[in-house]
Amino acid sequence: MAEVSNCGSELTPEEERLRIRDIVMAAEVQSKEGDTFYLITQRWWQDWLSYVNQDQATISNNGSSSSTSENHESAGLKRPPGIDNSDLIYDVASDDSNRGDELHDTLVEGRDYILLPQEVWKQLYLWYGGGPTLARRVINSRITQTELAVEVYPLRLQLTVMPKGDHSTIRISKKETIGELHKRACEIFDLDPEQVCIWDYYGHRKHDLMHDMDKTLDDANIQMDQDILVEILNNVGSTMFGSYMSSVQENGVAEKETSSVLLEPSKSSLSIAGGLSASKDGARSCSSELSQNQALPNLEIDNGTYGISGVSTRGASVGLTGLVNLGNTCFMNSAVQCLVHTPEFARYFREDYHQEINWQNPFGMVGELALAFGELLRKLWAPGRTPVAPRPFKTKLARFAPQFGGYNQHDSQELLAFLLDGLHEDLNRVKDKPYINSRDADGRPDEEVADEYWANHTARNDSIIVDVCQGQYKSTLVCPVCGKISVTFDPFMYLSLPLQSTSTRTMTVTVFSGDGSALPTACTVTVPKQGRCRDLIQALSSSCSLKHSEKLLLAEIRGHLIHRFLEDPLISLSSIKDDDHLAAYKISKFINNPIFLHMVHRREEQGSREGIKEWKPYGTPLVSPISCNDVITRGDVQSLVRKMLSPMLKSGNLDKNVSIGASNPSHNGNGNEASKDTTESDSQQVGSDKPTTLTSPKLFLQLVDENNTCIDLSVGEEKAVKVSSSSEPILVFVDWSDKIMEKYDTHHIENLSEVCKYGPVTKKSRTEPLSLYTCLEAFLREEPLVPDDMWFCPQCKEMRQASKKLDLWRLPEVLVIHLKRFSYSRSMKHKLETFVNFPIRDFDLTNYVAHKNSSRRQLYELYALTNHYGGMGSGHYTAHIKLLDENRWYNFDDSHISPINEEEVKSAAAYVLFYRRVKTVDAPICNGTQSKVKSQYHK
Description:
This protein is an alpha+beta fold. It is globular and about 95 Å long.
């Protein structure tokens, strides 16, 4: 490890901080593809930040203070040692010596390491030395070509040489070309490039011949830890294609002997058909041979790959096989189990469905997703209960949906939506999709228009997914200006239902008095979701009984400081997130030329170094208006602060009949503890000649002047406070010692409420549950479009904020309902723990279907659901599934499966519900019966 350099020893911590800050700002502006970033351990970075942030030469407006650079050494603050990244890499001495500087596989940015631009790393390395150096390149992400990302984990590929049998592992960027991989493979094994071809050897089976040397590994769908076959041609005279053809045929023969549940067709057969320099007849012959192999009957399970035991389980229950959690894959396991246990899918994929695979669909995954899902489904329905590791399915999923790659937690509903859409495209019976221009209703009967839209849809989309899961709803848009009505009929795969009204939101704001006349109170009000600050202020004014002579000053609080005042009444409430903290200050309307006094509370806390204490912002700032027309003395400021804090003074420390006035204490020169913990006793006349003893704790107050200098307000109380001509507020630090805090109920200024606090479901919400019918009605309710989703009115020829109304028109055999539990805020996703009372049987949607010409009752029963427990990103998914043959419910928790009672199915964790249509004899609908069923849930 390099020695620590002394180049930076002459710089103060503050100078180091400013230099790095300037480099970072410049680097952010200039970042581009191909730049180099460096990993540095989070532990060392935090030590350095603590070091440079302690040495502030002056006190800034953020309320923190510390020693100057002159007493830096005397305070015992030491520079961090050399950079040590050893905890980010494998220990070469105790691990495989071929790893080199190989990163641990489970590192998380922000927890284990951070990424530094090249110039920042160079500067820190020049000052501190150390290592090892861990450089990574900036690449374009695959999903968004304009979004840059640092490739912390380049591809790790397993190279296998045939026929030698040699092996090697390499790291290479996914943005490198196949030509570069070919070159490096030849260098590693000392091979002649003219005699070598490389194959995509995914699953130890030959797939694509990687012959396009300019294609990137990312475009070739090469994944982490994938096998690459390095094949040495039989002789120099052989053509690459001749070797390719013989290899495919040999591979096909070998597959006949070891084939398991489903024989996945080799991608190489598709490549031949796609037009390598082979004859059409030769390509057709090879392809047909593989197709015949695909139709082999299901003879045995490949026990070696999935760990299924060889013990016979004839006569045992099927469908009770769990899925191994590969690492945060519970989101995938729960969704897959619900699909696997959908009866229509279970029958379909256990039969021969290969003739329906659409190999040429540009919107699909060339049949690979359907094959992988079908193979996994057959293993889960095979006899036995040994859990299956879905690694091949997950790897295949990551090839086509990189967002689900890696081992982070994801949303099971998002995965479910991708799976349903992907399976549909892979199994779409329509090979050539016709272009169809849909017409508007233009006053035609709904039945005619709906049938026309559905026929147009099925002319392009026809699969088992459409047969089972797709329905149709009616969408009505009305122009608010000309009254133009537009009616369309659109397909849906699932319904996403809101758990609360989409038109309003509740907001909690803590209201403070500006004159110390009352304790702060938290007010929760309901405002329009797309409203503005004026709506919030109006609701708060009513809630807190605001006087005619008062107005509210709204502020956002961050880090115990005022981040901004929300003075513009037109500020959109959507800019205020649920995890923000708001305070409202009551101030008088009749103060001439007002200026505001900001009281920032501070308390002494342990610093980053042992034995060193620092004053840190604490609690919620207080605000009080002062007239600039009056002369304001230091004593006036003291008096006002004491008055503002007087409601929090505990009984016994202040006579309730006496108001606090200014104090005139003796204050020693060094100022702090000697004066802070003393009390004063004054005799005052209050309405009579009898003196009343006033016991008032003495606070240590510091005024921050325009030069950022702190002034002790107890010194020179008669001196006037200089007021800024720019209407800047007067900043006063209220420093709380432990003894003083004992005399006040400071909890009133602590723990400022969030705008909307999410927590466990309350007892009230359990006794008065939200009905699934209510959620459906909220989804179908007419409401205006949001401003970001305006509609172009064909009659006005303008963008209009039209009103939109949805109606169910055609319901599917399997109805998937997604409960929208997650909402986004600035820092994370919030989860609604609302308990929804959903029917398990007799879910009657007859009255919610707008198509009235059919007398068929729309009854559904629940057969599966996914659950989400905990918070987003750190929670856990399970599934409750009813085995219809047994008429019994089971809990599927990854590899663990256990029976449960029907009463346990309902919980506040329910996330995605799966209903199947109940087969009923068509009969006239009995309104009384239906109302009775519905009333059990519709409360």
